[in-house]
Amino acid sequence: MTNTDIERYSYDVVVIGAGGAGLRAAVEAREAGFRVAIICKSLFGKAHTVMAEGGIAAAMGNVNSSDNWQVHFRDTMRGGKFLNNWRMAQLHAQEAPERVWELEMWGALFDRTKEGKISQRNFGGHEYPRLAHVGDRTGLELIRTMQQHIVALQQKDAKEYGDAEVNLKVFAEVTITDVLIENGTATGVYGYRRETGSEILFEAPAVILATGGIGKSFKVTSNSWEGTGDGHALALRAGGKLVDMEFVQFHPTGMVWPPSVRGILVTESVRGDGGILTNSEGKRFMFDYIPEIFKDKYADTIEEADRWYKDQENNRRPPELLPRDEVARAINSEVKAGRGSPQGGVYLDVSSRLPAEEIQRRLPSMWHQFKELADVDITKVPMEVGPTCHYVMGGVQVEPDTAAAVGVPGLFAAGEVAGGMHGSNRLGGNSLSDLLVFGRRAGIGAVAYLNDGSAKPKLSEATVAKAHARLNAPFERTGGENPYTIHQELQQTTNDLVGIIRIKSELEAALVKLQEFRTRIKNVTVTGGREFNPGFHLAFDLENMLIVSECIARSGLAREESRGGHTREDFPKMDPKWRQINLVCAADGEGTSSTAMPATMMSKELAGLFDPNELAKYFTDEELASVKGGSN
């Protein structure tokens, strides 16, 4: 294929990713009057957002009027072990309720309270019932609503211009392989149509990454096939940086049997609605794993934990609702100690806690999922569950207010691909509100960038030719390496050496293996034509997964403490000195580097929302002195 065969388009804004963050960004840019292209790797409506089951975390106070943004901010910072970008956590907590009400105005059908308000459920790490939900299918409803709003905007354009896609068009089943850069500035993107392999170019002065996560780098994951770290890798190759990549969340409850469905998510709503975790001895083991920093907030007896569901004002929360990192480590410890279930997990039981009809009403997807995939009726018997790679807290380093990628003018990132918001661990439900809040802010940031009056560089044919050559390289190589073989070995390496529990020797071994994969990937050869060629797709996904895995391992080796989604067996405790540091990854020649960067300290006013005794568990004496005097 020659450069003249390339399909070419020109837009003001290109959004890569059609999940919640991407669609919300696209709406914001289009409503500001700009022409927008939405590019999705899968079919429109099949984004991984649909797999989010529990709800959208927003402090609306519909179930408990004591809830407010300050409490949500506190919970988010606690969950992230105070390594969060505090400004992102603040904006998120303040703006999440408005984004939920906005969805409702656009047609989302949330479950209701008896008073007719949007219902909110309990979730791990949240002090009050906070998750607005649609049964256990909230992500699906979010995407349905956003799609409907996109179509409404297109219908409006059809009436005004006679063409529904003149200003807002969705390009489905397109993979982007490069963000195009001129003089350090984003000028568009390059890729191919997955069905035919034909090449496609989008010129655009503003590019928004909303590509989701990295789960397919790991052997056991809740992520769908699209989660190959595309946006993370695109940003790195474009000159951007990734922050907090050592923090990978292993959701504590994924299916463990049968093998074909291992890793599929079991929503936290099961525990939020009363489900309990037990080991092979029938013991509710989570009472043995309450960390010292949380002991004042979580029940230490079964009686108090069970009373909490009816009287939250006078009882502490059940330990099953600890933040996800704590629960995942506890399950891992039980299995290693020989107290696991027959298939290598533990038991999650809601059958003894709620009537069958109530389970089917509250958790219809979970009931159907286990019945169809494992022939297990969760209204009658416990489920077997275990940790699964679910989410990466790390991502593109961005400016909090604009979602602009640090160091690359014209590039923006929102949702899971952006780092900073969640610190070392994400609370359940904060993902959907994150993508709505910062999807909108990415759109606002792109609009402001387009309106700032500065001259934007033009895309050169030399840059196009470079992207064209890179895309065609797998067909021209003669090394004979099979991408499927390398992918299996890569997943096994991350599973064995960069998993839930890490240690220096294994992280060093992982980096050696990853360097070997880098050499082998240069020899990956794709045979056959471009049409319907999965080996062609994997050749590029593999490069992305490799560079992401290297960042995770390199940052994991550098951080000599345990915090949130990063647990070091050789450094088992949190160290307040490491709370002052974010690790930032950058492309370094053909590899990556990881550099320590001072973490920003929250303002005195925000620090005043916390009990000083709680802050003393996380901060150094010098840091505490710097925020002394904030109002509580």
Tell me about this structure.
It contains 18 helices and 22 strands. It is α/β, with parallel strands linked by helices and 632 residues long. Strand 2 (13-16), helix 1 (20-31) and strand 3 (36-40) form a beta-alpha-beta unit. The relative contact order is 0.15.
Task: Quickly describe the structure.
The chain is an alpha/beta fold and 632 residues long. The protein has helices at residues 20-31, 69-79, 86-105, 138-161, 230-237, 269-272, 302-308, 324-336, 356-362, 364-374, 430-450, 461-476, 483-497, 504-521, 534-558, 604-607, 612-615, 621-626, and strands at 7-10, 13-16, 36-40, 56-57, 120-121, 131-132, 168-172, 174-182, 185-193, 199-203, 206-209, 242-243, 248-255, 276-278, 346-349, 383-392, 395-396, 411-413, 501-502, 567-568, 581-588, 591-598.
Which structural class is indicated by helix and strand composition?
alpha/beta
Rounded average pLDDT = 95
Strands of the widest sheet, in order across it, are 7-3-2-11-18
Largest sheet at a glance? 5 strands, parallel
Tell the overall outline. Answer: globular
Question: What's the β-strand tally?
Answer: 22
Number of helices: 18
Residues in helix, %? 25-40%
**Separation, N- and C-terminal Cα atoms:** 65 Å
Low-confidence parts: none
- Strand fraction equals 15-25%
* Computed CA radius of gyration, to the nearest angstrom: 24 Å
Record the SSE blueprint:
Blueprint: E1 7-10, E2 13-16, H1 20-31, E3 36-40, E4 56-57, H2 69-79, H3 86-105, E5 120-121, E6 131-132, H4 138-161, E7 168-172, E8 174-182, E9 185-193, E10 199-203, E11 206-209, H5 230-237, E12 242-243, E13 248-255, H6 269-272, E14 276-278, H7 302-308, H8 324-336, E15 346-349, H9 356-362, H10 364-374, E16 383-392, E17 395-396, E18 411-413, H11 430-450, H12 461-476, H13 483-497, E19 501-502, H14 504-521, H15 534-558, E20 567-568, E21 581-588, E22 591-598, H16 604-607, H17 612-615, H18 621-626
Parallel strand pairs: 1-10, 2-3, 2-11, 3-7, 11-18, 19-20
Antiparallel strand pairs: 4-6, 5-6, 8-9, 9-10, 12-17, 12-21, 13-16, 14-15, 15-16, 21-22
